[in-house]
Design a protein that fits this description.
The chain has one domain. It contains four helices and no strands. The protein has helices at 2-14, 16-40, 47-54, 63-67.
Amino acid sequence: MDEQKALSWQALYDNMWGIFALGLLLPIVIYTVWGIVEIINVPQLDVNSAMQALQPAQQAVPAEAALVH
């Protein structure tokens, strides 16, 4: 029984294209899943408060400054 397991693992390691495919597919799948989880966990932006924060503050202009050219 142990010989059969050893032979199946050996057959997997001897398959160069199988190892190549695993070397490409595993990182692609892992990083894709990781990216999707990161996108899902990004907090939702409150657009109204963000737009108000971007607008310059309204400052009262003194009457003397308004008359100077």
